[in-house]
Give the backbone structure.
Amino acid sequence: MQAFVFYLMKILIFVLRIMPFRLIYVFSDFTYFILYYLVRYRRKVVVSNLHSCFPGKSAAELEKLSKQFYHHLSDISLESIKGFSMSKKEIIRRHHLLNPDLADRYFEKGKSIICIPAHFNNWEWGSMSAGIQVKYPVVAFYKPMSNKAVDNLGKKHRSQFNTSLASVKRTADTFSEMAKTPTGILMVADQSPSNTKDCYWVDFLNHDTPCLHGPEKYARLNNLPVMYVDIRKVKRGFYELELIEITDNPAMLPDGEITRLYMNHLEQSIQKQPAFWLWSHKRWKYKREKKD
């Protein structure tokens, strides 16, 4: 089965390589129809998430958001594979960083930075676009796939433009290895934590939400500036990115404040383009334990 998935991925990469974007989006519309109407992929999760996050919206508004989300999910699924064969020029044109100077300023000082995007708009192109739009060598943390062949294939393509991928299982070791080299570090941090022992809890989208502690932990340990990566969809296949500085001195902020500010920025982004977050995630699986 793993071999079948690997060769299917190879075929998709080849087909999308030669397919123009306008045709890809025709295919995406068909994929949307299958996901939404036939497979009904995680429909209950999406509907539940939207309803609880936007209690003031009508049923018609929530249904419209749901359909927009599935259209978007189909788009980015194909865009992520198409990205494997895009040129540097095309990547910059379609995934454009508006203010690379904010990152480059720290590079000139010989200081690493932590940039925290989210599963919002097209985050998949970030590992490729970052390394060709800032002066830093980039390290992007990711969760390895169980299919080793597909995982290696993805790493190969995502690491082609001045970016290295590092497993989240090696986060501490990777930070130690980067200690003497100014590096731009990407850490997507809006997924649900595997456990709530070390997480931070914040008010986010009408929920008491557990958040991963990694970005804040390593920012404080290494005293690194932290930036939120705001990704905005301009139109189909085109995105603008903006770096928003959260802090240049983590030690000056109260514990948990970096995480709170990151989630606050993300909530503002979602409120502006609510259909484009990854609503199919089971984001609120855990509840805060009540202390005696």
